[in-house]
Structure formats: structure tokens, C-alpha cells
């Protein structure tokens, strides 16, 4: 196994770029001042798995953690015991050590919205809102509702103060930025002047100077009524009227959550895969967080490929494969000069295979011909060449990010051959996150 | 309609499909709805405006591909202008936040506008009465949202029980549910995307929306026979070292350069076969769905314009337009 030092050296040698600072995951998890970790990034980069793995690791290092996931894979949810939609955290069995605990929950967007209504309105009124068609559509998840409810839930969990660390996964938005924008947008709509106009056009015209505007308003509500159909407009008006009186203002709530995200106890982790789209989103997000003065802890780069045979370049591997295919007539001695000795010692293990001592005997029992051995060796070499091409491509993509944001600390997580859906897998991811064990090790 | 879980390459597949369908003398329109400018990036073009533009000529003497990034807000203003001649009142609405409100919050309105614009392009004819576009391909929202996105017209039609929006929604829904529409789902041979694909198909079918094909993307070549690999890792290990040496990679004795490559190369091979096994499992799950598939290879050099044409050619080989 190669340690992080060797890999860094290798990467540095090959690329001639400064490597970014390494994200100290355990320091972040152990710091009692860290109260909220938000995992964000574009879809399909492993956000949920990262959040769950951080939760497991923090709990096993002694913290009382709750993980709020949005849309986990079924088997991952099952392994954490949150497959059923409870909308409240439940304790995850099998996570222990140093007095820590792990709780987890999956966000039920509609239920969260319903609960807000029920908590703020009396029986009859609450029932009227819950039955309103406009409310039903809105709460079932149109643009922004999921993001808003995730933030609402985060606020609730933080207010309960039952946990010393909350790890939040963010909704699978089209873009990572939706998560920051949607709550504010929803808040300002439900709280905004347009809604008030819808509600009571007469009020706006209170001052003489507003008369003209008032005419515009009735023209507008008239148009809206024509457009949406009077019944929908009425539904919206009823809904807004009901919501308006019972809320302390949507915007106020959205603002409060926004401030919570800016607070010193919050740490953002931008999650990405080493692919152009994901890292482009990550770069946007890093810039946006800075603009909003939200504390960025670093970048988690998932699914990074590596190799323990980096000393063999793709080109040489392919050339060697061709040599073998061309009947294998190659001068054995001349090949030696090709490899650089300095790099060649990474990645080998001295233990293990018993028959490495001799080079002159094939096993008599094997029914593979020498041609078969050559064929499989060609396969090994081609596979390696592909791997090296992937590594080079990923490195270029990362270099682009690093040159834009050299200050951002990075934790790399090696690509795993399969999906993660049990605690052991999450622990392994957590270990890789924390120790920066590079891909291929 | 091309949908798929995030990270499966649905934009790429949509673009390749638009190229593949643009045979000689034909014209396709590639539509984007999520404001990401993914199409422009893919074709190395400038950000697309709200305007149909020629973006590429298809391979092998093919037809033309046009592209359009639909913006819900602009689509609503256009719509209001078209039906109500709103002019300055439209601007006033915008100032007040009403347009923003309508396109962001009003249930499904945004989605109706997006699909509505695409349907308009589908039905548009030139002066000679010919369809302007032979095919319209939409890079649609991801699998998790696709049914709601397409079916939202139903939902809107239910909410707005009469009026122009109601009628518009009905008309759009008729096109979307017709045999002229196909919803293709892009997946990788990995557990989560396959699971989402299965769920997506079930949802689309339940909503009466036409499921097209499953596009299995980034399929890896398989170089190695598992059994042979077992022997290579076991009793024939020394012979592998010798073969590497013969290939010109150094000495095959213990500690020799070629010999030291054996373990890492075998480890990579084991990882590879492990993944192949998982892929096989996922493939059988897909087969169980009983939906026809296209397969697209993983491009080793990463995605660029040349790769996109390669994928389009591949789709044509798989008789994409028959």
C-alpha cells in the first residue's frame, strides 16, 4: 500500500502543479464548535453517501450526530434503518464507540410542510389549508419546496439542540446553487408584494399617489383570473390568506435559516466527482459561498481513480501489449532500461504470492497455454492503459479547479468498485475521507 | 424526451440523439430546459439565447441540428404577448414579481411553459406545409422528476379547471401522451441509476406517458476472461511476469521491474472483474424491465465534440431512426 505521502509526491512530480491543501476531516468532525456540516454539490456525485459516512465517523469518534438525508438510495436507507418515512430522527443501530451516537432521518417534504401548518394553525383552519388544491400542489414539490423544507427541517433540528453535530445532505437540484436560492425565493414570494396585491388590491391604493397603480392591479388580477381560471386564483388567495396570518412571515424564517448557515458553527463541504461538469458546479458553489460569507471547509472529491503501477505510462503499456500481440519477439534485456527505478518501488507488496521466487517454471497443472498467458497479459496491460488515461483526465480536470481555487482544501476518496449500502461500506468511505488514502491503495 | 439520473450523461445522449436523427435533408431541434447551458458547452458554442440556432451539421452528409435553451420567464412573456397583447403591462407584471412568481411557484406553470414551447416546435410547419423540424429532442429534467414534469400539464389542467392555461395544458398533454413522443431514460450499469430507471419507468407507465428506450451509457469494454485471470493470479503468476518482460517491461525475476508490475496489474484486473460482475447483475435487472435498449460505449479520452459524433454514429448503427 502506498501512503498519502508517496501519492502526493507522485502527483506533484507528474503534474508540476502545487497540490492543494489536504482537508483535515477528523479535525473538523472532532471540533466541538462544528455544529452543522452541509454537504452540497451537483447531482450524482455521492453527496448522500458522503453525508452518511461523515455521520458514522463522527459518531464513532464520540459525537452525538444526526444525519438529515434527502433522497438516499433504498439500500443505504435500509442499512441505516430509515427506509420508512418517519420524518423524525431515529437511532442507527450498530454505530458505537467513545460514547457517540448516530441518528438519521429522511426528509419527507410534504409532511414537513404539513407539520408547519399544523403547528401554526388551529384545527379547522389547518384542515382548510391542507385541503386547499393550491397548497397540495405546492407542498407536493414544485421548484424550491424541497430545498425550503430541507432548510426548515435543519432549523428545527438545530433548535431542538439534542445533537452536537448535524450533517445535512442537500436536495438533488439541477444545480448546486438552487439549494441556497430556493428558500429565499419561496420566502420572498409568499411574503412579497405580489402576494399582498393578490390578497387585497384595495390596500395598496391607500395613498392617493397609488391610485394609478391600483387600476393596474385590478387589471392585473383580472388578467390573472382570465389566465389561470378564476377558481385557481381563488384557491391561491384563500391559501395565502390562511398562511399569512399564521406565519411569522416566510421571509423571516428563510432569513433566519440563511443566518444559521452563515454562523461560525456551520461548515460547508462541496462534494464533486473528478468530472468537468461536477467540478464546474463545485467552482461556482465555492465562489457563491464566499460571496454569501458562508464558511467553506473544503472540497470532497469522490470516485478518484488511482493505480499502484503509475510508473508504467499508458503509452508504454499499450506499446508493450502490441509487442506481445506481435508474437512476443522482444529482447528481454533491452526492456529493462525503460522503467524508471525511482518510481518503480511504489505499490508492491513483498508478502503474498508464494511462487514469486522462481521465474523459470510455469505450473505444470495449469491448462493455459503460453499464448493464453500472453493474451491475459495483453488484457492486463490494456486495462492499465485505460486506467492511466482516466487518471490523467481526472488530474487535468482537478488541476483546472485547483488553479481557480488554490486555497480550497481537498479530501480525495478513491473510487470503489461497487455501491455502498451498509455501515461497513460507510466506515470505509469515512476512513478514506479522513486519511486521504489515495485511489488505488 | 431524454431523462436520466444526474451524472449519467443525459445531455450528451440527447445531443448525440439529435445528431443521429438529423439524416440527410432533415432537421432536428435540441432543446434545453434547465438553464445550465450544457448544450452550448458540449458543442463548444457560446451560451444559447432564447432563440433557435443552428449548432451543428450531422455526420456523414447529414442534416442540421438546431438548438434552443427555453427560458420559462421569457416563454411566459411571449405567451402573454401572443394571447393578450400585454406589452407594457407584461413589464409591469415582471416588475412586481408576478412573472417570477408565476414561473417559480405557481404549480406546474413553469413546466407547462417549457413543454408547451417544445410542443409548439413539434407542430410548427413552414409555408409549404412541411414540419419545420423532423424531430425535437429535449434534454429533460432528471428521472426523479420527469413524470411530474411531463404530467404536470395534467395537474395544471386539474388546478386551473378552465381558461387558457387549462386549454394550453390539455393541448400539450395530448402531444406528450401521443405515440409521437418517447421518453428515453439514460442509465449507467450501476445500482442507483438502474434502480431509478426502474422506478422512473413504472411512474411514466402509471401516468400513461410513452416510455421509449433505456439508453445504457458509458459501457466499458471487457478485456479479461475471469477464469484465465484466476490462473494468472495463481499458478501462472510467474508466467505473467515473464510475458511482461518479453513485452519489454524489464526483468521478470523477483524484484525485477516487470515482476513488480504483476501485483498492481492483477489488483486492477480484480477490481475490473468485480465491477463487470456488478454490471452483469444490473444488466439482468434492466432486462427484467422489458424495455428495448441502446448501448453507448465509454469514451476513454473523455467527452468532446469528436466523441459526440462517435456516439451519434453508434446510435445510427443501432437503428435509432427506425
TrEMBL record, chain A:
Domain annotation ArsA/GET3 Anion-transporting ATPase-like: ranges: 34-309
Annotated region (Disordered), positions in chain: 329-371
Gene3D superfamilies assigned: P-loop containing nucleotide triphosphate hydrolases
Transmembrane domains' residue ranges: none
Leader peptide range in chain numbering: none
Biased composition annotated in UniProt, kind: Low complexity: 345-367
Protein name, per record: Anion-transporting ATPase
Automatic annotation (TrEMBL), chain B:
Gene3D superfamilies: P-loop containing nucleotide triphosphate hydrolases (3.40.50.300)
Entry-linked InterPro entries: ArsA/GET3_ATPase-like (IPR025723), ATPase_ArsA/GET3 (IPR016300), P-loop_NTPase (IPR027417)
A Pfam family that the UniProt record links to this protein: ArsA_ATPase
Ranges for domain ArsA/GET3 Anion-transporting ATPase-like: 1-177
Signal peptide start and end residues: none
SUPFAM superfamilies in the cross-refs: P-loop containing nucleoside triphosphate hydrolases
Protein name: ATPase
